[in-house]
Every structure is written in structure tokens, then in C-alpha cells.
Amino acid sequence: MPLLSVEHVTRRFGGVVAVDDVSLGVESGQIAGLIGPNGAGKTTLFNLITRLYRPDSGEIAFDGESLLRTPPHRIVRRGIARTFQNVELFPSMTVLENVLVGSHGRGGRSARELLGELGLDAVVHRRAAGLAFGTMKRLELARALASSPRLLLLDEPAAGLSHEEVEELGALIRRIRASFDLTVLLVEHHMNLVMGVADRVHVLDFGRKLAEGSPAEVQRNPAVIEAYLGSERPQHAPA
Amino acid sequence: MVGAADWAGVAQQVVAGLSSGGTYATLAVALVLIYRATGVVNFAQGELAMFSTFVAWTLTQHGFSYWPAFALTVAASFGGGIALERVVIRPVERASVLTVAIVTIGVFFVVNGAAFWIWSPQVKSMPNAFSTRPIRIAGVAFSISDLGIIGVSLLAVLLLWFFFRFTKLGLAMRAAALNPESSRLTGIRVSWMIALGWGLATALGAVAGLMAAPPLGSFDQNFMQPILLYAFAGAVLGGIDSALGAVVGSLALGVFLNLLGTYVSWVGTDLRQAAALAVILGVLLVRPAGLFGQALVRRV
Is the predicted ipTM greater than 0.90, yes or no? Predict the structure, then answer.
């Protein structure tokens, strides 16, 4: 049984179907990639899993139990933490305080230890607002890890990072999976990163599930190539 | 040239100004607290403080002396503030800032009316919190009451600062104010943090009311209205989003208004409120973020 299972989930915003009958499962210990062109519904799916949105239909279960009756502030206690596409830190707080807030729900490793693990020792007492973007992203990751999650949702962790930082990020994700005993679901545009770290890749396009498989399988899939490379994009999702 | 006797007079007036400023500061910090948590100025802050003061006055009429009444009232105000948020603010939590601000204006009138209804419109007088004797420091006689009010105001603000800086709950409340969405996902119950903020602000307001009432000699249901104006001016001067700014701004305003009233004969006590309004206007025109506030930069 997968640790996270999304079954036939649909979410509409007005007339737009942002997520359309999507099903996917993430096995315990896996690093799963979630890819798709802009507007494919990836972040919406994240927001559905973390209960910031409510699905119109379908079921989302974590560790065999439905998440749909869990309010957002209890998600972390179920063992799910996330980062955001645009980095949602507490800007006027120090780096240490940001991580301490993260351990609000359920404590685990000490905040100092975490900051060390993510290479943030040097900026412990600096305000989050003044940090370099890459450092902010690592801080957000440290905050998420502070709650000792079992499932970590990363929303475009590579966006805005330099080439070197992206390479380090891949190694970092694999390292924290091992040392924190994590399952990771990763939304990412950076194909090299996804194909390098993911065990399994799920592809969304226009809110629908387009394909699923190992990185190599997905890269060979004609529908995926079409979705990414097709210069004349069809107005409707391919059947 | 100004003689030695005048310097003693100035020192006395400065301390008296700091004393009123301390009261404004306590109320101003309450304003900042709610502003940071919900993005609105709580126009009912002064009336809630007035209501607390009347509760304390009732207790003193039933055999309580000042300080036990003070402690009970501050505790009750904390609970009352939380209850008020749950009943009145919670339903408009997701509404626009303007809606919430209008609700606080509604609370202003309801609380004011309720106080007139419960306690007759005759003026009341509050027992003194401190000895009325003067104390001589370096040859200058200061009022013990003024020094006591300064002490209590600073202590209240300092305790609050300590709470926000060093406790887990304080950290969670700051997080909830800064980024509600992220906070929720770290397990913080944001809505309850806002309620707690109202509780703390109302308790702080009670301290302000209970410091302000005794030196007035007599007070009625409208006695906090000018003090709210001064607290607002102090908070705007310091920066409405900065607690430190609100304290510094309020103390400075207290001293400024007191010196102005004492040494500029045509200002007297009547034009003090006008002077406070002038300060608000001046700050908003020249430096809208205040002395310590963060300038609001909006990306377009």
C-alpha cells in the first residue's frame, strides 16, 4: 500500500478544472517526481494534499487513512511537511526562530542540529529576510524537516537556484531522504534534477495525469515529449 | 537664561510627561499587537480599556483595594478579549480590512453604550494606585505616582516583549501574524493565535485604563477617548507595526504634549488633542512608516 494515495481527485476553480480526475500513489521511501508544463495543476495538487484546498471529488489518503477530514494545522502532526514555490518564510524572524516555529507541531532533531545539517550554522541569528535566495530555500527545507515529517512535499526547490546549487540540491535531497527516513514528492521544472533523483515520475498536463513511470520510461513517452516540446499546443488535453 | 528652579520644573514636567506617555505606550502597544495580527487598527481599544476600568472600579466598591482589583481586572480582560474575538471578529476573519475596522467601530459604540447602561453617567473616582507623597531625587520633588505609572507601563510592555521573544507560544503568535498559511502547515492554530492577541491587547488596555484613571481624580465613560487618540498618535509616530516604535513614540509624545501644555500658554490643556492630531497628520505626510516602522513597499 502506498504511503500517499491520491484517487480520482478533481478540483475546479470557477470554470477551470485545475486538477482533473488525478490518481497517483507514492510508496514509502520513494522520491517521486511530479512534472508537467506550467498550469498543469502540480501546485494545486500540493495544496490539495496539504489541505489548503478541498477537492471537489476524490480521495486523498496518507498511511491508509483519509486526509480529507484533517484540518491544515493537523497535517503536520500526521507527518506531512512542505516547502513553497515562492518561499514562505517568516521574514522578520531569525533563521533559528524560523526552524523553531517548524518544530511547533512535533519536535524531532534539535533546531541547531538541523541548521548544521543544512549548512546554515553561519547565519543562525540573521533575519530570514536578508538571506540569499538559495539560503532561504535551504532554511525553508530546514523548517519543514523540523517537524520530523514522514512525507516531504517540495514545490520547485530548484527554481531560482544557480547551476551549482541545483547540483548540490540533488545530493541534498537524497541525503535527507536517507538520514530522515523520508518519502519525498517533488514538483520540479528542472528536468535534470528530477530525472537524476526521482525513483518514479508522474506527469500532469492540463490537470490530467498524462503518464507515469521510471525517469527513463517517462522521457521516452511520446505523449510527454509532445506535451513538453509541441510548439503548437492543443487547446484540449490529449485523449 | 533659565534659572536652576526652572530646570527642576522642567525635570518634573518631563517625568509627568513620561508618566502620561507610559499610559499611552501601554495602549499603543495593544494597538500594534492587533494591527500586526489582523492588519486593522482596533478603534474599540480605548473603550475596552474604559470598560475594564469600570469593572475594577466596581470591585473597589465591593471591598477590594486597588491592586487586587487591578490583578482580577487584567485577568478578566484577557478572557474577555479572547471571548470578544471569538464572537465578533471571528465571523469576519476572512473579510476585508475595512470590514474588520468597521466592526471595531461598532464594538466602540456598543461597549460605550453598555458602560453607560451598566454604570450610571455620574463621574466616578478611582482609589490611588500609588502614594500621593512626593519623593525628592537630587533636590527635585517628583510624584511617586508618576514614577509608579512609568514603572508599571514599562514592566507590562517588557513582560509582553519577553513573552513574544522567548516563549514557544509567543513565537507561534508571531509566526501566525507574519505568514498564516505557512503557520497552519507547521501546526499552528492561526485563528486561536489571533484570539490570544485580542486577549493580550485587552489585558494591556486594562493596565492603561487602570493607570490613567486615578490621577484624573474623576472619570466617566468617555475618559479613554483622548487617551486612545494619544496612543494612536504615539503608535503612528513610532510606526504602527513596531511595538518598540509605539513605546518610544508614545513616551516622546507624552513629554512633548506636557511641555507644550505647561510652557506654551495658549496651548494649555485644551489644544493638546489638536496637537496630537497635528502629530498624526505630520507623520503621515512626512514619514508614513513612522520612526521605527517598515515602509510598505508594494510590488506592482
Answer: no
